[in-house]
């Protein structure tokens, strides 16, 4: 009887497989993409490449040759094992002890939005922060142009409690350069002086209570690419540092009074690279100013993107935010805010939405221990290459702004708006053609879900807002009429012939909230036309294979025209006599907007 190996040295693990190499991989890719064997490896790779809105080419494969030669700047801050700060958003007008409740249920700090307050004073903040121990829980203010009043109010609360404000933590939320740039103006008189005065007032070498939050999310929500968001954020920070230097503030110490805020999206690797690139570029600024060690004193706050969120199918937002939070945590964000998944459904997010946001971070931190690893993406050939390329794109954007005289001058000249607008238009085109699908909105919509409020749909800066406004029009018409506007789908031939395009057309029409009515399973034009007249529809769409279209499309279209169809579409490429088509790559927004007008949906 044959004996097996008696020692580990006799085992050959996977030794019977050929040694992998890039050429074999390329050949396998070409074979997978073209079974006929006519595709060259170079053409196969070209099919798999994609390009970001910063013009960065994303390769399908990265190798050791893509790894950076070495870095001289830190990619992430050193963590003490506790991970990042779970910074929960609280509306100051909500009251009811919401801030302390968030802290009791998992948050470690508060992002207090005071923009909704009628009056920003100590009493208003005291009501919002009732029960919060300011010496233990950091408070970061989101106040926009009202930051000076909010800062005075917050410091007054410290003094009421007998605490030294300099011993507090969080941020006063000043961003005078950013606010003025997006408004197309200049900071209010004395506002930059106020920033310098607050830095002097708080004192200390490295105070935990920051004065400035350079908020890059404002550029993100205005349409910026990742590189543009970074470039504008860095430009705002540099312009602020110049202003502080002119007012006698030590530049090295000023880095420690600033925090950077960036948007985290569901594009996992892009977000990881963006936050890593932010540290690279900010360190480059510090080095250019002669204070290379100062960059590490500036924390980075991640906020899940409002722009990526949808008012319809809000549960998908929870998935988007989970990926965004994961990416920001992996990239070394010092604080993370996960916005409630249902904040766009009504006037405000529900307790469930806030709880999901908190628990998303708790699971990643406490169960997955994501915050205990320093720079876990470091060493990935793809991430390292993307980080460097994104840092270069951000630096190029920053240099363009500098050549125009700084962020305020570039904004006043329309340069910033033009650049962000071009990216926004490119993204809108990709969404309208479904090249950049939005699950629950442009793909797999549920037309039976309750409609969100008009205010939610109109939230500026969101990628889904144009498409969702079309759907909101249909929802309003449905409420007014009692029935949902519908399109008749003429299913021609056998199910095997029409099902693929029937499914495609149904999905596309439901993007606009339109119902669909399936016709009979037949290829008889008269029978199809008769069914059309019985359902009360005014618009029809033919659904079948190209082979069936060649024989039957013209006759069915003619029969539907005789049956008083106002317009006939075809799922697929246009056919003779049927020019209106629903096809892959079509501008869905343009098609639906025209169709709603034909259906007299106001």
Question: How does this model look, in words?
Answer:
The structure is a single chain. With 602 residues, the protein is an alpha/beta fold. It has helices at residues 22-33, 41-48, 98-104, 122-128, 147-160, 176-183, 191-202, 217-221, 226-246, 251-254, 268-288, 315-330, 351-367, 381-403, 407-412, 415-432, 454-457, 465-481, 495-511, 525-535, 546-562, 588-598, and strands at 50-51, 57-58, 85-91, 109-113, 139-142, 170-174, 209-215, 258-264, 300-304, 335-337, 486-491, 515-518, 539-543, 567-571, 581-582. The strands form three sheets. It has an eight-stranded parallel barrel with strand order 3-4-5-6-7-8-9-10, surrounded by eight helices. Strand 11 (486-491), helix 19 (495-511) and strand 12 form a beta-alpha-beta unit. Helix 9 packs parallel to helix 11 (268-288). The longest helix has 23 residues, at 381-403. The chain is globular and about 85 Å long. It starts with 21 loop residues before the first helix and ends with a helix. The relative contact order is 0.08. The model has no long low-confidence stretch (mean pLDDT 91).
């Amino acid at each position: 009887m044959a004996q097996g190996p008696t020692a580990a040295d006799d085992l050959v693990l996977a030794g019977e497989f050929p040694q992998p190499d890039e050429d074999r991989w390329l050949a396998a890719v070409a074979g997978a993409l073209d079974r006929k064997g006519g595709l060259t490896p170079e053409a196969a790779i070209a099919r798999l490449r994609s390009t970001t809105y910063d013009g960065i080419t994303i390769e399908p494969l990265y190798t050791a040759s893509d790894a950076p030669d070495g870095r001289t700047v830190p990619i992430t801050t050193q963590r003490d094992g506790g991970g990042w700060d779970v910074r929960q958003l609280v509306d100051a007008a909500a009251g009811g002890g919401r801030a302390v409740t968030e802290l009791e249920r998992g948050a470690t700090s508060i992002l207090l939005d005071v923009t909704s307050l009628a009056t920003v004073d100590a009493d208003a903040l005291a009501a919002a922060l009732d029960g919060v121990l300011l010496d233990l829980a950091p408070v970061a203010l989101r106040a926009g142009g009202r930051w000076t009043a909010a800062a005075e109010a917050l410091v007054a609360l410290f003094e009421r409690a007998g605490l030294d404000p300099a011993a507090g933590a969080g941020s006063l939320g000043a961003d005078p350069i950013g606010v003025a740039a997006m408004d197309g103006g200049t900071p209010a008189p004395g506002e930059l002086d106020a920033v310098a005065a607050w830095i002097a007032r708080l004192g200390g070498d490295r105070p935990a209570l920051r004065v400035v939050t350079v908020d890059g999310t404002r550029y993100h929500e205005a349409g910026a690419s990742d590189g543009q968001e970074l470039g504008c954020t860095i430009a705002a920070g540099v312009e602020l540092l110049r202003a502080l230097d002119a007012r006698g503030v030590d530049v090295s110490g000023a880095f420690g009074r600033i925090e950077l805020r960036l948007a985290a999206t569901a594009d996992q690797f892009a977000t990881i690279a963006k936050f890593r690139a932010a540290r690279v570029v900010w360190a480059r600024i510090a080095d250019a100013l002669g204070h290379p060690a100062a960059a590490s004193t500036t924390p980075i706050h991640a906020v899940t993107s409002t722009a990526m969120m949808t008012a319809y199918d809000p549960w998908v937002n929870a998935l988007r935010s989970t990926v965004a939070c994961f990416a920001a945590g992996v990239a070394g964000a010092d604080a993370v805010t996960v916005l409630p998944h249902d904040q766009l459904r009504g006037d405000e997010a529900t307790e469930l939405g806030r709880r999901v946001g908190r628990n998303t971070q708790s699971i990643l931190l406490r169960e997955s221990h994501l915050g205990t690893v320093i720079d876990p993406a470091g060493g990935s050939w793809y991430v390292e290459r993307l980080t460097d390329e994104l840092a270069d794109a951000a630096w190029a954007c920053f240099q363009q702004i500098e050549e125009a005289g700084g962020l305020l001058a570039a904004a006043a000249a329309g340069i910033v708006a033009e650049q962000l607008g071009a990216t926004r238009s490119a993204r809108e085109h990709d969404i309208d053609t479904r090249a950049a699908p939005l699950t629950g909105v442009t793909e797999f919509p549920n037309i039976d879900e309750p409609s969100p409020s008009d205010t939610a749909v109109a939230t500026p800066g969101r990628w889904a807002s144009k498409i969702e406004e079309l759907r909101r029009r249909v929802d309003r018409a449905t409420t007014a009429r009692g029935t949902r506007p519908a399109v008749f789908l003429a299913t021609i031939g056998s199910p095997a012939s029409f099902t693929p395009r029937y499914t495609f057309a149904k999905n596309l029409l439901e993007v606009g909230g339109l119902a669909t009515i399936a016709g009979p399973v037949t290829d008889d034009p008269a029978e199809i036309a008769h069914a059309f007249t019985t359902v009360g529809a005014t618009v029809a769409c033919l659904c079948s294979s190209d082979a069936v279209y060649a024989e039957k499309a013209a006759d069915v279209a003619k029969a539907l025209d005789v049956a008083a169809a106002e317009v006939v579409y075809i799922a697929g490429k246009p056919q003779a006599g049927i020019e209106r088509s629903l096809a892959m790559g079509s501008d869905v927004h343009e098609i639906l907007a025209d169709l709603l007008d034909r259906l007299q949906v106001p």
